[in-house]
Amino acid sequence: MTQTRPMTNAFRDAFRRHPAGVAIITADTENGPVALTVSSLISVCAAPPVVAFSLSSSSRASEAIVKAETIVVHFLRYADQELARLCASSGADRFGSGIDWERLPTGEPRYRSVETWFRARLTGTTPVEGATLVTATLLEGNVACATESADIDALVYLDRRWHSLG
């Protein structure tokens, strides 16, 4: 028999057991580049290519990303785990010295070590209690192929830990 629990606890327990891919969202703002790690990235449509993700209302980077016109979505591999941790750490300098990043010709910040990425235009936001759901249309990018990299194991977040699918 399944035990009935308070909904918040049941929700948290269920999603701890639900593996999620990990991505980093970056944007340029009037105060400089911002970045954060998300495990809520989903595909919405293939033609045109649209993605969605949620941003916590408690994050300052979330507020800046929602105001941006364009962003970069980085699809992380297991090898990118340290970058995922950096962008998930409150108060961390995500673009300081020693961090390998560049600006795209259009101005958005991009982490060079992440092989699969897309520049995207924000197309909608929906406020939700404690969060904002964001949709974005992919414009251009790069996808790592197996022939280009021997290490393309996806980074997955499960039970509050990082895992590889490889």
UniProtKB/TrEMBL annotation:
<dbReference type="Pfam" id="PF01613">
    <property type="entry name" value="Flavin_Reduct"/>
</dbReference>
<dbReference type="InterPro" id="IPR012349">
    <property type="entry name" value="Split_barrel_FMN-bd"/>
</dbReference>
<protein>
    <submittedName>
        <fullName>Flavin reductase (DIM6/NTAB) family NADH-FMN oxidoreductase RutF</fullName>
    </submittedName>
</protein>
<keyword id="KW-0560">Oxidoreductase</keyword>
<dbReference type="InterPro" id="IPR002563">
    <property type="entry name" value="Flavin_Rdtase-like_dom"/>
</dbReference>
<dbReference type="InterPro" id="IPR050268">
    <property type="entry name" value="NADH-dep_flavin_reductase"/>
</dbReference>
<feature type="domain" description="Flavin reductase like">
    <location>
        <begin position="15"/>
        <end position="164"/>
    </location>
</feature>
